Amino acid sequence: MFKNAIPVLPSMNLRATIDFYETRLGFAGINLGNYATLQSGFATIHFYLVTDKSEFYPSICLICTDNLEDLYTNFAGKDMLYPSGKIEDLKFGRKEFSIQDNNGNIIRFVKEEK
Fold it and tell me: Rounded to an integer, what distance in angstroms lies between the CA atom of residue 88 and that of residue 4?
């Protein structure tokens, strides 16, 4: 029934958001005025522009991956971990770590252990 889910996160500056995701995370972005789309492999994130700072509320996005350790090493080397730390072993065989984007949104990278 369901094929896909795409998170839509807030951005205070779409050009800066696209630059962040392209240069720091390897995504390719398209600016559509007050909306943007970013994609890397099977991961897609959309952003909408928030012009009133008092109406801006950062959000959270999960990205599932099978190469969590490689991503962790890459982002740790760029001092991007949020909060700074190690890969967390969570319940039910799940591991994850997080980064924070230029808007304050939290991006959680997750690997399910089978």
Answer: 26
Cβ(77)–Cβ(93) under 8 Å? no
- At residue 71, the 3 state secondary structure works out as helix
Residue 3 belongs to a domain: no
Check pLDDT > 90 for residue 86.
no
Q: Can you give the CATH number for the domain in which 79 is found?
A: 3.10.180.10
Confidence of residue 90 (pLDDT cuts 50, 70, 90): confident
Give me the pLDDT at residue 7, please. 97
Q: Is 109 exposed, middle or buried (0-12, 13-18, 19+ CB in 10 A)?
A: buried
* Interval 41-63 mean pLDDT: 96
Question: What total of structural domains would you count in the chain?
Answer: 1
Q: What is the pTM of this model?
A: 0.91
Helix ranges (H only) for the chain are 14-25, 68-77
